[in-house]
Design a protein that fits this description.
The protein folds into two domains: 129 residues, Rossmann fold (3-Layer(aba) Sandwich), CATH 3.40.50; 117 residues, Beta-Lactamase (2-Layer Sandwich), CATH 3.30.450. The strands form two sheets. A five-stranded parallel beta sheet has the order 2-1-3-4-5, sandwiched between helices. Helix content is 45%, strand content 22%. The protein is an alpha/beta fold. It is built from nine helices and ten strands.
């Protein structure tokens, strides 16, 4: 996953200063404007993608120090780096106050544009890289969880005449039980990647998940499909009717990370049911014949 373009919130009550900072940073970053401390708080309450704040100190009403203090009290914004930019408060006591309220650096006007660019590049990457690392860690944990769920389901359902397939969020089959290979008449180890095609869920090239079907509905829309009858042609060329059910698998934060699919041989189940019905009918018939023989 590549780092996106950083979002820099510039807070200053003077439009000329806002435009000046945009001229310096606009080619490299998405610059967001706020003309007061109150407006910056409103912006941060609505947006969770701000990576860096350039804060003017001297503003009417709520000054930069108070604004920074308020920002650090916002759970979703407290980790955003704040750089103070001012032409007024350059003495040590004010610089120390800037650090005390959560500032990470201090620039006095007029500033060197190249140095500002360099420091913005460093500070704006903090939140982006942290988010990237967190997302990667989450993906690893989700993958481990998906594999774990698949193993537990496989162990639970291995003895039943039901095939179990585990798919990732892209719809790719990553695990299946032996019953799947029996139902589809193929080698489990060799053809895991082809199950989606034989079941009609992927195109013939195996490159695109079709939008219809229980698997697509589970991973793309979070829908549950139950006992959906499908006509398929197995790897040996013979037609077969199966029943498929699919449920979305959700990750640590509730997002869809894959799906579990159950398939059952409908033709085989129907044959078993018909055979059972014939046996019961025969037994009942024998019972009637026995009663008639006893009566005579």
């Amino acid at each position: 996953m590549a780092l996106r373009k950083a979002n820099v919130l510039v807070v200053d009550d003077k439009r000329a200063n806002l435009l000046g900072l945009e001229a310096v940073l606009g080619d490299l970053y998405n610059v967001i404007f706020a003309s007061s401390g109150e407006e910056s708080l409103d912006t941060l309450a609505k947006r969770s993608d701000v990576d860096l704040i350039l804060m003017d100190v001297q503003m009417p009403g709520m000054d930069g120090f108070e604004t920074a203090q308020r920002i650090k009290q916002m759970p979703a914004a407290r980790e955003i780096p704040i750089i103070f930019v001012t032409a007024i408060y350059t003495e040590d006591p004010f610089i120390k106050k800037g650090y005390e309220v959560g500032g990470i650096d201090y620039f006095s006007k007029p500033f060197d544009p190249e140095i500002l660019k360099l420091k913005v590049a460093v500070y704006s990457s903090f939140k982006l890289k942290d988010k990237l690392l967190r997302e990667r860690e989450l993906r690893v944990r989700e993958s481990e969880e998906l594999i774990s769920v698949g193993r537990k389901l496989s162990a639970l359902l291995e003895s039943l005449p039901v095939g179990v397939l585990i798919a990732d969020v892209e719809g790719r089959i990553c695990q299946s039980t032996e019953e799947v290979s029996r139902i589809l008449n193929t080698s489990q180890a060799a053809d895991d990647d082809s199950y989606g095609q034989i079941l009609g869920w992927w195109d013939t090239a195996g490159k695109k998940l079709k939008t219809d079907g229980p698997l697509a509905r589970a991973v793309q829309r979070g829908e549950f499909s139950q006992s959906e009858r499908l006509e398929i042609r197995r790897f040996n060329g013979k037609a077969k009717t199966i029943v498929a059910s699919a449920s979305p698998l959700r990750g640590l934060q509730g997002q869809i990370v894959g799906a579990v699919i159950l398939i059952q041989d409908f033709t085989e189940a129907r044959e078993i049911k018909e055979s059972l019905h014939q046996r019961v009918t025969k037994l009942l018939s024998l019972g009637i014949e026995l009663e008639e023989t006893a009566a005579t």
